[in-house]
Amino acid sequence: MTVAETAVPVLTIDGPGGAGKGTISRLVAERLGWHLLDSGALYRLTALAAGKHGVALDDEAGLARVAAGLDVVFVAEAQATRILLEGDDATATIRTEQVGDAASRIAALPAVREALLGRQRDFRKPPGLVADGRDMGTVVFTQAPLKIFLTASAEERARRRQLQLREAGVDASLSSLLKEIQARDARDMQRSVAPLKPADDAITLDTTRLTIPEVVDRLTELLTERGLASAT
User: In the chain, helix, strand, coil percent, each to 5?
Assistant: First the structure.
């Protein structure tokens, strides 16, 4: 990594699904005018592309080739980011439970993680980067000056997911969503490569009883206190 790259501040936000990482990361990046890395989207896109091309989820070499050759474009738009996979809009598709489950499975494969590592680090550009994922602080950006681990109770994360699905017109039982979240947590935390856990120097923030604006304010305050961003 070059001196110029290390001079670019990075805020890593790791944590389990449903803790609010995606929304919080986007809002912090918008407030600061920084770049945003949604690392989970890359794994979801890999899983989706594998399905399109008939690559099995246990074909590690094949999945690594798919990851290395992803034809993906992130289009910044008001309040959101549109994602094109091989020219097709995949923004909504990659957020389905089916794709999320597949992404969690392939994320446990070392060759896939290695294939996506360089692509993730390429997002580090001035004036700064907010990196959202599960191993941003422990593997991808180990020298980041501020690392956050967002968490929330599994019950609260299931409730949030149910609300998201209802807004999208999809009905799902709270009990089934809770089981899926608990299973994904266990898989992510127990995998041999880059398991889900806070970095040793990360600040853990439980969002169960916090509002989104409260979390965004707290993170921008921490960045300002450490001289990584100007007061907003």
Answer: 50, 15, 35
Question: What confidence category does residue 4 fall into, taking pLDDT thresholds of 50, 70 and 90?
Answer: very low
DSSP classification of residue 173: -
Confidence of residue 1 (pLDDT cuts 50, 70, 90): very low
Whether a cis peptide bond, with omega within 30° of 0, leads into 145 is: no
pLDDT tens digit string along 144-180?
A: 999 999 999 999 999 998 998 888 788 889 999 999 9
> What is each CA distance from 223 to 5, 10, 130, 227, in whole angstroms?
18, 10, 11, 6
Q: Which residues contact 217 (CB under 8 A, 6 or more apart)?
A: none
Residue 180 in tokens: 């899926």
Tokens representing 32 are: 């600061």
pTM for this entry: 0.85
Quote the CA–CA distance of 83 and 193 in Å, as a whole number: 27
Residue type, 215: V
